[in-house]
Write a structure and sequence with these properties.
The complex is a heterodimer of chains A (about 230) and B (about 240).
Chain A (H helix, E strand, L loop, with lengths): L1 E10 L2 E11 L4 E6 L5 H8 L7 E6 L2 E2 L4 H7 E4 L3 H4 L5 H11 L4 H14 L15 H13 L5 E5 L7 H16 L3 E6 L10 E6 L2 E7 L5 H6 L5
Parallel strand pairs in A: 3-8, 3-9, 6-7, 7-8
Antiparallel strand pairs in A: 1-2, 1-4, 4-5, 9-10
Helix pairs in contact in A: 4-5, 4-6
Chain B lengths: L15 H4 L2 H15 L5 H17 L4 H8 L3 H14 L4 H24 L2 H11 L10 H31 L7 H28 L16 H17 L1
Helix pairs in contact in B: 2-6, 3-6, 5-6, 7-8, 8-9
Classes of the chains: A alpha/beta (about 230), B mainly alpha (about 240).
């Protein structure tokens, strides 16, 4: 379970997150929705331990991200909004291996996991390709493969369908849904109402605060209007 | 543009040069680079050029591919040549030799990156730069810097093209210093943002600068043969 307790964070003088309290249960599909600048990405980065709280705490399966950020990051993968910048190495299979090298796997194990991940995402044909020659949808899959290969228990997707065409959007959301079915806990950061149909739990954010956190069935237009997401 | 631009990137081919140990290839780049700067005789220059072209042929790198990767340097070549023509016309032969050396250095480096996977290159740089630890330089960071440069140079060119087109479409004149300054500033901003995103991504994928590569590197028969060939080549030149 991921837990945030009395979480505050600020960039320079402005609070980006104010008194955040949340619980994300194992195996769930949670969507964090809010208008631009509402603090969604900052919250997502806290869940992965990329940012540590100014005050308050984030616990990943009991690990405090302030004290044990490395082990927390092993459990929580993060697929960035700017996935083009997320790819470290120029060749697809090498980039997928990047995280595995950091986990100190040996060459044979790395090769096995890379091949399995490529097959899982049906991108075996891209293994030797240069990432600069891929389409946006393919790059998004490579970024996801790099995270998936590390076998995380939780994955945070930060607006994964931004800039993608409708068929790629459908394909990526289908993969995210199937990952959740296979047992991976999904945290989807989005500002698209349509994406909420995949989630079971919804967190709505406004100006750095959570204004709603519950099951999707309890969400109504009044809350969305308050968050600036619905006219 | 993004589909075409793969400056200096690895070409997945099966060749003897591809199979050479990355450490050996890095050492050859250094040796050949130094060698190119020590020779002056026409015959030596001819033999050296032939040797480099032979490596390209063995590596199955097309001549056209090589030339297209030299394109970003054309302006520098023209500039250098023009400087010699304007200021020291009597030393134009010397200028051409310097130009040739510069060209050889680029081609040799390109042949290294064309035939070596970035992960092999990183492991090799890490292993070769271990002695630098005494100076407080972390080999993994050094290797990572080079790999990131190889990965992002083409991205920078693509972004440059995008900003240039966007500015021209709104009637910018890039001969004007003011407009050029805007373009360069935007490019720098983008690169800073990309660097910040990349650093976040590496951190979230557990990058550790103190980690040593687990890769086992062993010299094979091709490596030993290549040592003999290069040694014989140096013997001929001297």
């Amino acid at each position: 379970m991921i837990k945030a307790k009395n979480l505050y964070f600020k960039y320079e003088d402005d609070f980006a997150l104010k008194n955040i309290n949340l619980e994300i249960k194992e195996g769930s599909f949670t969507a964090i929705i809010g208008a631009n600048g509402s603090g969604k990405t900052t919250l997502g980065k806290h869940l992965n331990g990329l940012i540590t709280p100014l005050s308050g705490n984030v616990f990943v399966d009991g690990l405090d991200t302030k004290k044990d950020g490395l082990n927390a990051r092993k459990k929580v993968g993060f697929v960035f909004q700017s996935f083009e910048d997320q790819i470290v190495y120029p060749i697809v299979e090498e980039d997928i291996a990047f995280g595995l090298e950091n986990l100190k796997f040996d060459n044979a194990e790395i090769s096995r996991i890379v091949n399995e991940t490529l097959a899982k995402l049906k991108i075996v044909h891209l293994a030797k390709r240069n990432v600069n020659t891929l389409s946006l949808g393919q790059k998004q899959l490579v970024a996801l493969a790099g995270v998936l290969a590390m076998n995380p228990k939780y994955i945070v997707f930060d607006e994964p369908t931004t800039n993608l065409d409708s068929s790629n959007k459908k394909m990526i959301m289908g993969i995210i849904k199937s990952l959740n079915k296979s047992g991976i806990t999904i945290i989807l950061i989005t500002n698209v109402l349509e994406d909420l149909k995949y989630a079971g739990n919804i967190i709505v954010m406004k100006n750095g605060s959570i204004i709603f956190s519950d099951k999707k069935s309890k969400l109504n237009n009044k809350i969305l209007r308050k968050a600036g997401l619905y006219d | 543009m993004i589909k075409k631009f793969t400056f200096g990137q690895y070409r997945d081919k099966s060749s003897a040069i591809h199979q050479l140990d990355a450490r050996i290839k890095i050492i050859y780049v250094i040796v050949l680079g130094i060698l190119s700067f020590t020779i002056m005789a026409k015959a030596d220059i001819f033999i050296f050029s032939l040797f480099v072209l032979m490596i390209a042929v063995l590596a199955k790198i097309g001549f056209r591919d090589l030339l297209s990767n030299l394109r970003p340097f054309y302006l520098i070549f023209v500039f250098l040549l023009a400087m010699y023509l304007i200021f020291s016309r009597d030393q134009i032969v010397l200028g051409l030799v310097y130009l040739w050396r510069f060209l050889m250095l680029i081609i040799i480096s390109l042949l290294l990156t064309f035939t070596t996977k970035i992960s092999d290159l990183i492991a090799a740089i890490e292993k070769l730069s271990k002695p630098l630890k005494i100076l407080g330089i972390k080999p993994r960071n050094l290797a990572m810097m080079i790999s990131v440069a190889v990965r992002f140079i083409p991205v920078m060119f693509v972004y440059f093209e995008r900003v240039r087109e966007a500015m021209i479409s709104r009637l910018a004149n890039l001969r004007k210093f003011r407009h050029m300054k805007v373009l360069v500033t935007l490019l720098l901003e983008k690169m800073m943002k990309s660097a910040s995103n990349l650093s976040d991504s590496m951190y979230s994928r557990l990058y550790d600068e103190n980690l040593e590569s687990q890769r086992v590197m062993k010299l094979g028969p091709f490596d030993y043969i290549s040592v003999l060939v290069v040694a014989f080549f140096i013997f001929i030149i001297y």
